[in-house]
Fold this sequence. Notes:
The structure is a single chain. It contains seven helices and no strands. It has helices at residues 11-26, 35-67, 72-93, 99-130, 133-151, 155-165, 171-188. Helix 1 packs across helix 5 (133-151) and helix 2 packs across helix 5. The longest helix has 33 residues, at 35-67. Residues 180-207 have low confidence and may be disordered.
Amino acid sequence: MFSMNQLSPTITDMIRFDHSHVMVTFHQYTKDKSPSVKKALADTICTALEIHATLEEEVFYPVMRQLDKGEPFVHKAEPEHNDMRRLIAELRRTSASDPRHDKVLLELMRDVIHHVADEETTLLPQAETLMSKARLSELGSQMTKRRMELVAPKAGKLAKSHAVGFSGSTTAMVVGGLSALLALRTLVKKPGGASSNTHTWANANSTPHAS
């Protein structure tokens, strides 16, 4: 029987998209940006990571623990999230005019990149092996519903931070395009149709780079 859940992107594709969004935002953080733009970009990254971590912990990780109790990454993932939350709290307390702001952001992103690499090369492929496409889409639908609940109270702040952080940047078009494609995919995917799990995410530099 056809279910509306089949129209949803899979949970693994949604997780990959979240990773890409954070990386694209980070690549706009250059040392020549003004403090207001740096803070807006940092806020966008922090909020995206907080929402993403909550979604994984509430929707994705519990399912993976049930399916494969011996998978080591799923057991260390939440402690890694907590380490990121500690750095996020420190980053929020730090003025963008303070040189430490750059250092804390880079430390956070090093942890994020390590976490993403483990997740995309271990946990996501494992999920796609253990679960059917229908089940992955069902979980994707659950994640979308929960995401809307988490984003709603922060929508105004997110929009403002995004507008300031990406002002005058062509990358804003990239992020908007990715979001539009994801939304379009949700609307037009045919039941039982194939979808690609191909994804890319760029490595970050070890220091803020000039435009």
